[in-house]
């Protein structure tokens, strides 16, 4: 088939680009002709909370990526819709993650469908955003009405979709494994690269730091006097997408500076395996969530996880099998951390291996092409 993916890809960085590029490689491996149309402008600078949207890594040589889409120019949407239609694709894939993108993607989808035989399939990261605005529902309806079929990566997202359409088909496929960050290294090698003591127990909070991800809860949990700070360290690895000052103030208030490693910058792909190889437990203390790519990096590196009971996280992190599912409170997180430090982490190895096997990219491509998988 001829497949066009419309969405984030190189030179943009982050989880959306990683997902779309890995998906394109899977389609190519299965023999399909795949092309990515990415952005010339993804977000206006005043809407982007980070330091830069762009990757410093070399361009992927194995992918066909064209920069063409301007997210805030309606005339561009029309021309890109016509351009894609002229390519006569069989399927156009669009990832949907925030309502801001709905007018752009929804308009492109409508024009493609009007002028070609393509089906438009949307992979839903979120339907209702973590940080809502009053205009969201109109934008979501506009996008949903332009799509033929959906793939939701958690039950909570599928349920949110049904608030906007009851008729359109939707398949549930869990977020596939992020297996593109290289092989694990030993904890000793990772510790040497980061210049830390390999004998300590390391908790890893990884990814963009936003309020809904609950880093403040984790900091309060970590400050509990029942945890032996001489043997345990908290590693925060990711860029602030919010008010950095409040976390710095909390760090001083809780007096946990000597036990916390702050690597608060964007972590490039080639360094991801270092942080996950160092970690003993991946902690996601989210206050709200749908699913998370961090869990699928953790599965790739066979690392146990602690997640909170929100959104789709308990669906992909079975409590007691691959780690812990706690309530959204510092007390509950502390209780789980204490249990982890007093038990053998190897007890999760079998469960991690069993769950990891469920998350193949072939399941995602089959759902997009509306095929059945075992």
Description:
The protein has 374 residues and is α/β, with parallel strands linked by helices. The protein is 36% helix and 18% strand. It is built from 14 helices and 13 strands. Strands 3-2-1-4-5-6-7 form a 7-stranded parallel beta sheet, sandwiched between helices. The longest helix has 15 residues. 41% of the residues are buried. The mean pLDDT is 93.
Write the element-wise H/E pattern from the N-terminal end onward.
EHEEHEHEHEHEHEHEHEHEHEHEHHH
Mean pLDDT: 93
Helix content: 25-40%
Q: Describe the biggest sheet?
A: 7 strands, parallel
Q: What is the global morphology? A: globular
Rounded to the nearest angstrom, the radius of gyration is 21 Å
Q: Work out the number of β strands.
A: 13
**Low-confidence sequence ranges:** none
Distance from N terminus to C terminus (CA atoms, Å) equals 21 Å
Order the strands across the largest sheet as they lie in space.
Answer: 3-2-1-4-5-6-7
Strand content: 15-25%
Number of helices: 14
Class from secondary-structure proportions:
alpha/beta
Short overview:
The protein is an alpha/beta fold and 374 residues long. It has helices spanning 15-29, 74-86, 102-115, 136-144, 155-161, 187-194, 215-222, 244-254, 269-278, 293-300, 313-316, 330-341, 349-356, 361-368, and strands spanning 2-6, 33-41, 65-70, 91-96, 119-124, 149-152, 170-172, 201-206, 232-237, 260-263, 281-284, 305-308, 323-326.
């Amino acid at each position: 088939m001829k497949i066009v993916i419309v969405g984030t890809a190189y030179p943009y960085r982050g989880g959306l680009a990683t997902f779309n590029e890995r998906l394109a490689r899977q389609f190519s491996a299965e023999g399909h002709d795949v092309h990515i149309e990415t952005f010339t402008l993804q977000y206006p600078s005043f809407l982007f909370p980070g330091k830069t949207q762009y990757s410093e890594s070399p361009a992927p040589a194995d992918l066909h990526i064209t920069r063409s889409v301007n997210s805030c120019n309606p005339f561009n949407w029309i021309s890109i819709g016509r351009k894609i239609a002229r390519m006569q694709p069989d399927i156009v894939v669009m990832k949907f993650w925030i309502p801001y993108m709905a007018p752009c993607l929804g308009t492109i989808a409508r024009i493609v469908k009007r002028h070609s035989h393509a089906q438009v399939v949307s992979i839903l990261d979120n339907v209702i955003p973590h940080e809502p605005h009053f205009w969201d529902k109109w934008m979501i309806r506009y996008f949903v009405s332009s799509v033929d079929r959906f793939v939701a990566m958690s039950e909570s997202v599928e349920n949110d979709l049904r608030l906007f359409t009851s008729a359109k088909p939707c398949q549930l496929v869990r977020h596939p494994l992020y297996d593109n960050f290289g092989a694990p290294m030993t904890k000793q090698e990772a510790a040497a690269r980061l210049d830390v003591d390999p004998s300590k127990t390391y908790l890893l909070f990884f990814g963009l730091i936003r309020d809904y991800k609950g880093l403040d809860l984790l900091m309060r949990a970590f400050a509990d006097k029942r945890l032996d700070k001489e043997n345990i360290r908290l590693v925060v690895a990711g860029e602030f997408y919010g008010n950095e000052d409040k976390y710095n103030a909390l760090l001083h208030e809780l007096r946990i500076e000597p036990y916390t490693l702050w690597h608060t910058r964007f972590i490039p792909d080639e360094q991801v395996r270092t942080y996950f190889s160092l970690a003993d437990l991946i902690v996601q203390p989210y206050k709200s969530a749908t699913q998370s790519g961090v869990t699928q990096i953790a599965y790739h590196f066979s690392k146990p996880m602690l997640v909170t009971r929100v959104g789709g996280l308990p669906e992909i992190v079975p409590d007691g099998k691959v780690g812990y599912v706690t309530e959204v409170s510092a007390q509950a997180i502390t209780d789980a951390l204490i249990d982890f430090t007093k038990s053998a982490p190897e007890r999760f190895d079998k469960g991690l291996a069993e769950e990891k096997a469920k998350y193949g990219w072939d399941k995602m491509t089959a759902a997009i092409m509306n095929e059945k998988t075992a």
